């Protein structure tokens, strides 16, 4: 997963303008495709950094937030049977799922920075980010699922595959 242009292609002024634009409330925009592209690039860059991280460091030792223990406990209380290895879009996007996810995520408002910010999430944890394996989720959902995947060993496949390829 490599970014050819990303924010660097915008130059200093463009990147500064993008950072300012991304800090404004969503109500300030009317489906501006340039803003949507900046959000997409930011989400892509986050995904790229995260995948490189779990490819380089044993996921069991990763701490993604100061609240990992709290997020994990609450997640497993709320989503006891969620299949972390292979998520389905319905696990996050169905009306029933949204009714459960909404209060779960809202409990972290003010605790997780940009808790409802859009983030890319892998459906199959043994594969990388690509169009077929990626879904848009909130940052709170991303943290909950990825903290659980790291603690429960689901992301070990990515780490071990990367480690073997380097040997």
UniProtKB/TrEMBL annotation:
<feature type="domain" description="Polysaccharide biosynthesis">
    <location>
        <begin position="35"/>
        <end position="159"/>
    </location>
</feature>
<dbReference type="InterPro" id="IPR021148">
    <property type="entry name" value="Polysacc_synth_dom"/>
</dbReference>
<dbReference type="GO" id="GO:0005737">
    <property type="term" value="C:cytoplasm"/>
</dbReference>
<dbReference type="InterPro" id="IPR023139">
    <property type="entry name" value="PBDC1-like_dom_sf"/>
</dbReference>
<dbReference type="InterPro" id="IPR008476">
    <property type="entry name" value="PBDC1_metazoa/fungi"/>
</dbReference>
<dbReference type="Pfam" id="PF04669">
    <property type="entry name" value="PBDC1"/>
</dbReference>
<protein>
    <submittedName>
        <fullName>Protein PBDC1</fullName>
    </submittedName>
</protein>
């Amino acid at each position: 997963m490599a970014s050819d242009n990303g924010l660097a292609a915008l130059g200093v002024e463009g990147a500064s303008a993008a950072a300012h634009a991304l800090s404004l409330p969503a109500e300030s925009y009317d489906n501006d495709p340039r803003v949507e592209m900046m959000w997409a690039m930011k989400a892509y860059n986050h995904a790229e950094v995260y995948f490189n991280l779990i490819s380089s460091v044993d996921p069991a030792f990763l701490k993604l937030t100061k609240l990992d223990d709290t997020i994990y406990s609450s997640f497993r209380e709320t989503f006891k049977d969620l299949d972390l290895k292979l998520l389905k879009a319905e696990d996050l996007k169905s009306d029933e799922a949204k009714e459960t996810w909404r209060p779960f995520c809202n409990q972290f408002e003010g605790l997780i920075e940009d808790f409802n910010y859009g983030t890319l999430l892998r459906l199959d944890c043994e594969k990388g980010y690509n169009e077929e394996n990626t879904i848009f989720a909130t940052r709170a959902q991303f943290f909950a699922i990825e903290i659980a995947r790291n603690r429960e060993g689901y992301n070990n496949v990515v780490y071990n595959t990367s480690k073997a390829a380097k040997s």
